[in-house]
Amino acid sequence: MKPSYRIAIVDDDDGVRQSLSSLVRSLGHEARTYASAAAFLADEGDAPDCLLTDMQMPQMSGDQLQAELLARGCAFPMIFMTAFPTDALRARVMERGGRAFLVKPVDGEAMLRCIEEAITS
Question: Is the per-residue pLDDT at 31 higher than 80?
């Protein structure tokens, strides 16, 4: 039996959170969802094994969340999603250790591959 991992999903779109949560659970993992970067940062529970985050969110973007987590010494894998990709944004998050940069709407199979690669490497 393969191990179960904790996957955090940060996206201000409820529908995206629900669909990604279902996708993560279909792999047999625990999905924790957050409507904002601030809500994720406020969670004092165990750190996730992987973070999936939107880039365009009110108050704090996905790349700002990444910078804050890195400043706090967090080393878990991070996967980024956006409907508004730019080369500069992709380069910034990937240079800081991002595991994947996906364009919305995200293909379910591509997301599954990215999650599996992130948690097993």
Answer: yes
Buried b (16+ CB within 10 A) or exposed e, 87-114: eebbebbeeeebbbbbebebeeeebeeb
Q: Which one-letter DSSP state was computed for residue 83?
A: S
In the chain, the N- to C-terminal Cα span, in Å, equals: 18
The position carrying tokens 């999603």 is: 81
Q: Is the pLDDT of residue 3 over 90?
A: no
Average pLDDT of the chain is 95
Does the domain formed by 6-120 have CATH 3.30.590.20? no
Q: Quick one: how far is CA 58 from the chain centroid?
A: 16
Tell me if residue 30 falls in helix, strand or coil. Answer: strand
pLDDT of residue 1: 54
Q: Contact, 10 vs 41, CB < 8 A? A: no
**C-alpha dihedral (71, 23, 27, 42), degrees to nearest 10:** 30
Specify the pLDDT at position 121: 84
